[in-house]
Amino acid sequence: MCELLGMAARYPATLTSSLERFAKHGGEEGPHADGWGLVYFDTESFDVRRIREPERAASSPWLPFIRSQQRPARLALAHIRKATVGQPYLANTQPFQRELGGRVHVFAHNGDLDEIDQRWRHHLRDYRPVGDTDSEVAFCALMSRLKPFWDGACDRGRGAPAVDERRCVVESFAAELRRYGPANFLYSDGELLFAHGHRRRHDDGEIRAPGMVTLTRRCGPGAPDSLVSESLCPPGACQAVTLFSSVPLTDEAWRPLDHGEIAMLRLTNAHGAAIRGDEAVR
Question: CATH classification of 3-281 is 3.60.20.10, yes or no?
Fold first, then answer.
């Protein structure tokens, strides 16, 4: 199965060793050699920087470039792929992105969704897959379900639907997705980051929970963090970084997400304000 990595930070930061450790799973220390991708949300807008390759991450010449050139961000998503549905083409490489409500929305999924293509693809209208993966079909279905709420918010002169509206759509979508197979995913609209933990194939070959783990690190002014760096904290401020990953990236006490748990992180605005909090919903 594929692997996921997500980051949400109170103040802009750059992924460092976490990205390096994650990338090694893409063909060096793991079998996920069929593509990889990385998305950073811009700190001054709801646009993104996205890099994808249909080759293995561990030997990609893009990784040294990213390490030297990446800019601090509050939100980042990454994916390394082991192809099970769809060829190792660029169109099948995650994270996927679409526009809705004047924002870029991104999605990355880990798991095999049996029969979702036959059941959902022909019912898609506003959003259609570019590639041929079950993951992209799932993302298009999620976007189609979110679209009426975003359109309604725009018609009323609001920037985005209410948080509870968006959360309810994601909860309902995740519950339905779980019926088709392992449904771990990361989804963000640039303000909210959703992490859904379900089941994944473990080293012993068994598919079971947890499908995702999480770790939150807090550090005061000048405190080092081995997973992120170049934090743009105001003087005297304390950084908080939450990471989501398919597997632990360090020996620390990563918390497993329960079967079907959705963790939601909200950034209070698009210009570097603090994360308001995280909450888990079933």
Answer: yes
* Catalytic residue selected from 2, 168, 233, 238: 2
pLDDT digit string, tens, across residues 24-47: 655 555 565 678 899 999 988 899
CA dihedral over 131, 148, 112, 6, signed as positive or negative: positive
Q: At what angle do helices 163-177 and 134-155 cross, to 10 degrees?
A: 160
Q: pTM here? A: 0.88
Known catalytic residue at 2: yes
- What is the spatial distance between Cα 57 and Cα 20, in angstroms, rounded to a whole number? 9
Query: Please, what sign has the CA dihedral across residues 27, 31, 37, 40?
Result: negative
The domain segmentation of the chain, as residue ranges, is 3-281
Crossing angle of the two packed helices 17-24 and 62-69, in degrees rounded to 10: 170
Instruction: Please report, for residues 20, 76, 235, 249, the alpha-carbon distance to residue 239 in angstroms, rounded to integers and kept in the order given.
Output: 21, 16, 11, 20
pLDDT in tens, 178-205: 999 999 999 999 999 999 999 998 888 8
